Amino acid sequence: QECSRPKLDLLFVRRFCRIQAVLFPSWSSQSVLMFATLLFVALLEQLVVYQVGIVPSQYFKILGEKDLVGFRNITVIAICLIVANSVLKSLDQFISSLLYVRWRQSLTMHLHKSYFKRKVYYALNVLHDELDNPDQRISQDVERFCKGMSTMASNLIISPFTLSYYTYQCFHSTGWLGPVSIFIYFIIGSVVNKILMGPIIPTLVQQERLEGDFRFKHMQIRVNAESAAFYRAGRVEHMRTNWRLQDLIRTQRDLMNKELWLYIGVNIFDYLGGIISYIVIAIPIFTGRYKGLAPADLIELVSKNAFVSIYLINCFSRLIDLSTTVSDLAGYTHRIGELQELILKLSDSHRKSKNSPQKELPSFEEDSSDSGEETESADTAFTLEQVSFTAPSSEELLVRNLTLKVTAGHSLLVTGNTGTGKTTLLRVLSGLWEATHGSVRMLTPFGPRGILFLPQKPYFTDGTLREQVIYPLKEIYPITGLADDKRIVRFLKVTGLVSLLKRTGGLDERVDWNWFDVLSPGEMQRLSFTRLFYHQPKYAVLDEATSALTEETEGELYHTCKQLEMTVVSVGHRSSLEKHHDSMLHLLGDGKWELAKIH
């Protein structure tokens, strides 16, 4: 990240255009229609602004001529113009806000679609460390990018029209010297601001990365508060969190120091523009171009020309003022663009992968029986042929040339010391990690009547008790109303968690707590088994799934698995597990392994 400093270059343009393709998917899209409406309102607003701008010159002439009737008429017109301008400006802001919401929804949903597809979210958060804080890029950077875009939208789209119109008016009033002087002034201001913006963009990207790290540290403490409290780790976590804060504050100060020079440049350009406008107006006056005009007419002309020149400079000033927003926008564009590129790379590599276990299998919520494909799912879950694998960050083989077949009715126990690759084997089976050599095939789909994994660390989503049990399904399975309630209650009784019904207020009552904070480790494992029994897969892959339970409870749960005709693949250390399995794979380390029948 440090070697490639983000900046305003062709890479920025490519990434920006890729994002725009998401925000404006077609000419008939809602975003295009809203943008066209914003353009129309902004144009109408500029027409009214011009009329409001020349009102003072008309007042000067009428007051100079002491015309009471004209004064009344111009006052009524001025009030109507001000009301119209206020309404149009408010509509401009309202449509810009609607565009912000629309763009954020479109871009976030587009990223979500790719992020949650297959195992991309897992690869980004676990396997790839070249991209920091993908969650922050989706939730925060997208929001700030869309906010910046909506802020700039009306100014940018109307600029070509206003610049053309007021350049013509300025030329008509002052000759070629007026617009040429203002254009030169703008070019000098643009070059200076481009130079001042250069160091800001990479510093902003660095600040956003450190913001994500600081937020992640607090989230880490929130999730693991109890474990930290048992260690009495308040002081050390205080120190380490302050380290993250100091890194962030140091970068923010660096950013503010760099932005100071940009602000100075922007403000000088803004205020110096007022003097330039009067110099432009003074030249034709002192050269005698308006020699024959009466004082009242000259005052009217000076006021009108001053407005035209000042507004033309103001148009350029607004573009220069946007340089701060553009620098921020460029930083967010690079961060979102990097995320898009890595997601695309991971998606492409997944499609090209030849060893993906679930390559042609239905997703969790699809019924494999309706797929029209003949599979070996009735007899076989996995086949491994001469498989070797390592951890992603290591070249040391954990297992070498493993040949294995998991078939219906023959449960397998995987044992071995810590670090010999037991959990890694399950990751390879599920397709989360790639084997370095050999063939891994999953011949039965995930889900009901297929395969279900219970990971070592139980996971519970936000939602009701029912949603925890049926997870990861979005709706009840099978969809049978009251019958489904009875199944859930039955399995809650089997796992000894029927008391949860009272604690939560029922299956469908929303709870405002974090399930990880409320449930003990043993309760979390029992609720995971409730989920397993509800789905009733043909094969259950269990990673230390009973480590927090007594041997008696463990025996009851495995007995229920057998009653539900599940074939289990278990990882564990307890000798009490052996009686629930038919064979045992013992991982010895250094790539060695032994496979033997238990009984």
Provide a descriptive summary of the structure in words:
By secondary structure, the protein is of the alpha/beta class. Helix content is 63%, strand content 10%. The strands form 2 sheets. It has a 6-stranded mixed sheet, with helices on both faces. It has a 3-stranded antiparallel sheet with strand order 2-1-4, covered by helices on one side. α17 (551-563) links the parallel β6 (539-543) and β7. α1 (10-23) crosses α10 (295-352).
What labels describe this entry?
single chain, 599 residues, alpha/beta, six-stranded mixed beta sheet, three-stranded antiparallel beta sheet, 17 helices, 9 strands, elongated
Short description:
The protein has 17 helices and 9 strands. By secondary structure, it is of the alpha/beta class.
Can you lay out the helices and strands and say which pair or pack?
Blueprint: H1 10-23, H2 30-65, H3 68-115, H4 120-127, H5 134-174, H6 177-197, H7 200-223, H8 225-230, H9 234-286, H10 295-352, E1 380-390, E2 397-407, E3 412-416, H11 422-430, E4 437-442, E5 451-454, H12 465-470, H13 482-494, H14 499-504, H15 515-518, H16 521-535, E6 539-543, H17 551-563, E7 567-571, E8 583-589, E9 592-597
Parallel strand pairs: 3-7, 3-8, 5-6, 6-7
Antiparallel strand pairs: 1-2, 1-4, 8-9
